[in-house]
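Reopening this ticket.

The earlier resolution said the output was attached, but the attachment link was broken on my side. Pasting everything inline this time so it's all in one place.
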Amino acid sequence: MIKVLVIDNDRMNCELMQSVLARHGYQVLSATSGIEGLTIFRQQAPRVTILDLHMPEMDGLTVLKEIRAYDPHAPVIILGGGATEEQENHARGLRVTDFIRKGLSLDVLVECISRVVQLPAKSFPPLPLANSAAMADTGETILVVDDESLVRDLLVQFLSLRGYQALGVKDGPEALSMVKQSSPDLILLDLFMPGMDGLEVLRQLRQREYPGAVIIITGSHGKEQAWAMEPQEVIGKPIDLDQLLMSIQLVLVCREC
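Inline output:
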């Protein structure tokens, strides 16, 4: 069973996250202080650590620094309600795996953990520093359209670190406006979004003769609807990042052909 460590000085938050994550099959360890959390981390070697930014005595950034000294590659997700830009950049400098603002749905946190544990240990790329240079640029642009900010940001980060020029938008109208200004080579399009769903976005892209490729992202119950619109590919949730990367590469190669 995969171990997840929750470090939060608010015991109620610990109990809530423990209850939610346990229902998803994780073995949850919890600590209500940084010192206690570091002790459990060293003893139990959790697969993922969830870390509150604001704690008395030893705050989240200090705990993260100690974790990095012990294990430079351990996945750590910081919960940072009210974080300043300086704090976020400090966390990125310490190679935090992700930075989630408090107040988001716990489903967002569960989705983030799921994506981390799908990858082999020590393979999840840390968030880059703001304005840092990406890896070798492929010259190809990808637009990520998803109303869930965490999913969108994770995909943009993942693709940027692999050399793509990746941008993210939160809904269909914003995506259509972006395409009108500068047409991307490929669009990763969430099927279920409030307001204008992915199918309507794809219909309007066809009407506007969008020349690029489209990969639809959806849960298993939406795949039949998605394929009916004849996108280049349909990827199921939770997303297998290796499969997604391979699909993107194949779609872009076929588009060139």
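Reporter confirms the inline version is readable. Confidence is low (pLDDT under 50) at residues 123-136. DSSP finds ten helices and ten strands in the chain.
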